[in-house]
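Let us practice reading a record.
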Amino acid sequence: MVPRRAVASMAAFFLLSYSTLARQQPNTNLGKDANGNSLRLAVKTGHISNYDESKVKPYTLPDPLVLVGGKRVRDAQTWTKARRPEIVRLYETGIFGRIPPKTPKVTWQTVPIRGFVPETTTDMALAVGKIGDGQDAPKMNVMLYTPAQARGPVPVILLLNFGGGGAAVAEPPVAADIIAHGWGYVTVGYQDIQPDKINTFDRGVIGAMGRAPAADEWGAIGAWAWGVSRIIDYLQTDRRVDAKRIALHGHSRLGKTALWASALDDRIAAVYASCPGEMGAALSRRDFGETVDDMAQNFPYWFAGSFQKWVGRWNDMPVDAHMLIALSAPRPVFITGGTQDQWADPAGEFLAEVAAGPVYRLLGKRDLGADRLPPLDTPLLGGDLAWYYHTGPHAATEADWRVFLRFLEKYFAG
């Protein structure tokens, strides 16, 4: 394990920021509004959470199809060779941070297991990925479930789940349905890759680097995305897996991670980002629910250190959520929101998908097919961008999952 002093500079920065905030405003949680929505105070700017559509100020989104120099992108080649890499760099330098060029090697060991999931006989295998060569190196525990009767490699859904780091990792609520489709699924607990806690850059893969991240390097979201790619490295070697049909699921902060991982790794064939909210699929320029200020204050370690410069300057960011979504084009993306999760701004998530549409159309794919929110619990699945707004909480519900499987059938069937 890397000594804490090896990352003292970054840890001290975050601890100082937190202690300063605590002295200025011990409690930034201001309770609930009349509709039960969380009210939070952003100390540096004095901003308080807004849930009133009439108070959302007009905003202008950066055009995903205009290069930084002002030239319009008119063909797929210019998008692929120029504009897309440009947007990735903008996210690397000012939002999620770049992944260092030399990261710890992951060594995999597999352990075959025979078992069951509800109603369906399934083959299970455990793969353990050791991150680096330290004596107490972190380990990613990856479970692979495939149909026992499969005659060859099958498509899989990779679930980047809560858990790990010694905590249990759940299976999808539709596990039997996935197997019945003739597909497989893979689970990993995100804290096996990097802890989800401030002052832990001496642990996980970032700790295995032996140094603090630079201001433009990865925080936890970047580390989790790195872990997804290393798991895909392994899945490409497993004869049970169709490596060209790997979908990625993540919920909440892991929905943000799923979108960023897909931006960095085009081996991800489809994305299911559940309630990804601010700095995921919700438009940052739209002042509704959680904001950039809240993110920077409460979860600074998820991002690059350079992310702090956007506090109070949302409209100055050269990117917004529609561009993060567009980085997955032409691959399919499915996004959800919940009525009891206005903190994540479901309307802003929907609008970001709408604004990503021009990139999909440029690449010969279908956009969302609507520019106004459909009725609740009514999925939009006709395009390569898909949407489902469920009645209920901040969760990846069983109904969400069933809608996603319907969407995925267009790409994974046969």
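A brief commentary: The longest strand covers residues 106-117.
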